[in-house]
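ESCALATION

Customer reports they have been waiting on this structure for their group meeting. Please prioritize. Original submission:
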Amino acid sequence: MRPSDLAREHGLSTQAVRNYERDGLIPPAERTGSGYRVYTRAHAAALRAFLALARAYGHSTAREIMHAIGDGDLDGALMVIDRGHEQLLRDRSTLDSVRAAIRRLASEPDAAPDRAAPPTPFTIGELARRLRVTPATIRNWEEARILAPERDRATGYRRYRAADVRDAELAHLLRRGGYPLDHIATVVRQLRTAGGTESLSAALDDWRRRLTDRGLAMLEASARLDDYLTDRPPGCIRLPARVPGRASQSSI
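Update from on-call: job pushed to the front of the queue and completed.
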């Protein structure tokens, strides 16, 4: 196959296919005696796998997976995939927790949110590690009035109790869903005050659909990746070393 043959299937330009080869996302092309690129079924499978992975996990993670496979590190690639599934499961669990909170608030409109403190309140560093974000991100959420932690009277350090952790989980969930900080602040405020839960439920219905779409995309990506790993010829998996900033090869 020519670069145009691979490109046509996905609505890409031929230059995009060459760039994917240059960046180590598909194996290097074979060359004719006159220097023209020749792609095989393995290259087509690799391209399908990368594009499916990008839809499921994002472009950066898809690159990481394909690079690990190209370097012969299958376990490393699977570890990256596992992290993606772990995050999806975590998102679903958070979503279920928020829905339970909404049901509780809706059934007891005069009740305040459960603010029973855990045995040991989280520090900002512990909360950041739980969410896999930076402490600066947590502080940004506080500035946006999404979070309102108590302060230790002796040290002045932030103390994140059970309800604060719940609010942070919700903020993280909606942030990944593309919601702006001011919208998230409104949603969290609604959850705290048990007001306007219908709009909050609508937002969570939308995010549940996104999680379903992501789960289905992961299934497709797994199938495409399995096709590539199964059908690739011997020696096809190892790609040349990627040198940042190196000029691309001839684009014939």
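Sent to customer with the following note: Residues 108-117, 238-252 have pLDDT under 50 and may be disordered.
Escalation resolved.
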